[in-house]
Amino acid sequence: MPHHEFECSKVIPERKEHAVIKGKGEDLTSCLPKGYLNTIPGSISERGCAYCGAKHVIGTPMKDVIHISHGPVGCTYDTWQTKRYISDNDNYQLKYTFATDVKEKHIVFGAEKLLKQNILEAFKAFPKIKRMTIYQTCATALIGDDINAIADEVMAEMPDVDIFVCNSPGFAGPSQSGGHHKINIAWINQKVGTLEPKITSDYVINYVGEYNIQGDQEVMTDYFKRMGIQVLSTFTGNGSYDDLRTMHRAHLNVLECARSAEYICDELRERYGIPRLDIDGFGFKPLADSLRKIGLFFGIEDRAEAIIAEETARWQPELDWYKARLQGKKVCLWPGGSKLWHWAHAIQEEMGVKVVSVYTKFGHQGDMEKGISRCGEGALAIDDPNELEGLEALDMLKPDVIFTGKRPGEMAKKVGVPYLNAHAYHNGPYKGFEGWVRFARDIYNAVYSPIHQLAMVDISKDEIPTDRGFVTRRMLSDKGLPEEITGSTVLSPYTGKFDSVSHLRTKTYPDFPRAGDAEEIIAVVEQGVQA
Fold it and tell me: Can you give the residue ranges of the Nitrogenase/oxidoreductase component domain (predicted)?
């Protein structure tokens, strides 16, 4: 067993079993770390709790809902706005968060009256919102507040509202994954089957395990609609509360994030006979295979192939451009559970990078199995790392970039390693064919950022070379550019690559600091001036 013992964790010998280095010829029977176990005391884990997994990951993306936490205000604040779950109702669920703000006196005397008062106040403050989700926290679970009774009482007094109760206090599981399970089962027990939908297509799906990070869901549902498929509900990105009550009428459950939402898919299959099909929206080949599988299920393979051919022809040259320049760059893949294996193989095959480490703070053994199997020899796999172990791993592996969350990402920047936000993205969406190119562009910009390279110069002792930060310009002067990059093109100082006029016109790269910049560059291009 090729366990890896971190120097900083030698005082906690149990931690040795939670990290491995994949050796030559190793298979999963000998290079799998222990995972999804209770946090070892003293290891200073950075895990999220079960409440966080229920509210922050799955519940909050529902768009037309008052999300209220029954507990101290800190629980609510910690799970508010840290991911970009956008919605088409002016991002209501991102703008507002609600808490009963339980204090010490409520712990002593009970907080049920406080909860009811807060529910009524919230509905009064937002009279157009008629749906609510209440989340249990550790404090109110320990004192035994009966949230279900209060919810029933309010619904009896206000017949036009509907309330969902999620009893998922922080201690309900080893990590946030425990909360995923809690809210999945609670939703199907309480709400699925309580409303009938309007069916408008012969092909009807639930899109499950999709949270619309920076518009991911919109990209995928566009493909489905082009295939003539009705998306009955999305669990839960940009999802409507009432649409999610109709999940029992779908013909197929299309599952994206198996770690967070396979539970409800399995229950829908058991209770309503709806089959489950796992797909992958990241990467050209995985996405193409996924669209083909859906097409095969409904007998509309030709529609899937038409989309694949059109999108591949449009975006493959750009992906190839980045792959040539990212070849061999070392990557630490430190995201959540499912992206561990959604990304590991695809980024190596399609972007040319090398994954030198994978980790997860809340993933199960199955996540590690799939992630490690897609890595090469020498890859370091870690379960539930803390900050010191992360720093030690960066010093040992010396990666060119890491994909992780904001907290470990900011830590990495301090030691000179650029990072991309694997949870909320830098410039998403990353799903879809164009999204995958956008991801490659963000990796490229992170690796070759002039600002990052200059930040590594110690002005008190280092020479400051005048060409530092101009790697991109030298690359673009090389031969062998894709054939489509001809004629009037311009090097954008903000995207770090050639942008054609059509790209700017269609806002393919909407990251100009000022609105006028794009028009100025277009004007230059249209005059035939080479930049």
Answer: 49-447
Which residues fall within 8 angstroms of residue 206, CB to CB, at 6 or more apart? 231, 232, 233, 234, 235, 247, 250, 252, 253, 254, 268, 274
Mean pLDDT of the chain: 87
385 touches 360 (CB < 8 A): no
Instruction: Tell the burial category of 526 from Cβ atoms under 10 Å away from its Cβ (0-12, 13-18, 19+).
Output: exposed
Contact by Cβ (8 Å): 501, 525: yes
Query: pLDDT (tens digit, 9 = 90+) per residue, 209-229?
Result: 999 999 999 999 999 999 999
Backbone angles phi, psi at 491, to 5 degrees: -85, 115
Cα atoms found within 13 Å of the Cα of residue 230, Cβ hemisphere only: 15
Tens of pLDDT, residue by residue over 359-376, are 998 888 888 888 888 898
Residues in the chain, overall count: 531
Round to whole Å and give the CA distance between 180 and 338: 13
- As given in the structure block, the two tokens for residue 257 are 């994030």
Domains defined along the chain, listed by start: 50-190 (3.40.50.1980), 204-306 (3.40.50.1980), 314-447 (3.40.50.1980), 471-526 (no CATH)
Given a contact cutoff of 8 angstroms between Cβ atoms, the answer to whether 382 and 313 are in contact is no
Cα-only R_g, the chain? 25
C-alpha distances in Å from residue 190, one per residue of 67, 183, 184, 197, 253:
16, 10, 10, 17, 19
Best CA proximity match to 470, nearest among 442, 496, 440, 488: 496
Q: Which of 337, 421, 331, 342 is nearest to 374 (CA)?
A: 342
Compute how many other C-beta atoms are within 10 angstroms of the C-beta atom of residue 252: 19
Which pair of tokens denotes residue 508? 């393919």
β-bridge partners, 490: 499
Q: Residue 328: which region, alpha, beta or left (left: phi > 0; alpha: psi -120 to 50)?
A: left
